[in-house]
């Protein structure tokens, strides 16, 4: 491998530009309900040129083998929309990318799961930085760059906060997973395989790690879940330094037969990290379900000789409510606003607790939960 070939390959990667409108693709929609999943991110999420490609091609170059597609299948998503796009920046989550609409346009109030990222590398020019490091004649890009790129990475925090807030506003009940970048080069690199000095290899991975750490911090600040691709078991053995056919990240000169471009996931890499994203999605969904159930509460209010029992859902997916006092069944309501009237005298005869057994349809399950109701004074 020569440095010249590597520069040429990276240059081809950097010249992917917007040429035509290519909105997010609804990969499938199997009807209402269930997990309704939207994937966002840059080329690391999209899988440019990774075969087979989805219809539409330029500028987004979305692969049918990207990790989002595999995550959608693993969680049994009812609807899956791929809004990832090559060359995207954080800003393109909420603003157009040339003629490409904002990625957030794929999200609506019915969306139940969103993955965001990886994203941010294009904001700070990590690919162009790698290109500047490929030099056997004048190595030392870390010394040349100083803190410039690191400072740019730190500056993305505000944009990430804005983007994540916009997603939560548009899809308030969605579970949100922020995905970081992976492990590209091991410590000290592999100068005989990839044309980077040991120092420059550590510098490049350090930039990638910094961007991932900012994504992690932003996820935590926004109450989202973080998927750390670096933690995927086996990552250290499948970097760009691994043999062709074993790489999860393609090297600076492509050697895989799947179409992967320099410093991007191979098909094998997409398959390897998908369980990491899937596990994070399941954690996020469990936390989302807990929040939905907590939003459902019951109340009992005296109205003359009657007591009005009610379940307040905040728009939540309650489909049926059984009201009880102790073991005595008071009645059922199968439609909003889930109200039942009973006499004050009837309640006073029973010393048990007031409860509502609410059947709640969550995106990934339907279950019945017990909602406690405080007794009003008139029934004590």
Automatic annotation (TrEMBL):
Gene3D superfamilies the record matches: SGNH hydrolase
InterPro entries per the record? Answer: SEST-like, SGNH_hydro, SGNH_hydro_sf
User: Does the keyword Isomerase feature in the UniProt annotation?
Assistant: no
Q: Does the keyword Hydrolase apply?
A: yes
The lineage's top-level taxon is Bacteria
Q: What are the recorded GO MF terms, alphabetically?
A: hydrolase activity
Q: Which residues form the SGNH hydrolase-type esterase domain?
A: 39-272
Q: Which UniProt keywords apply?
A: Hydrolase, Signal
Extract the CDD domains matched here. Answer: SEST_like
List where this protein forms a coiled coil: none
The stretch of residues making up the signal peptide is: 1-20
Q: Tell me the protein's name.
A: SGNH/GDSL hydrolase family protein
Q: Which organism is it from?
A: Aeromicrobium wangtongii
Lineage of producing organism:
Bacteria, Bacillati, Actinomycetota, Actinomycetes, Propionibacteriales
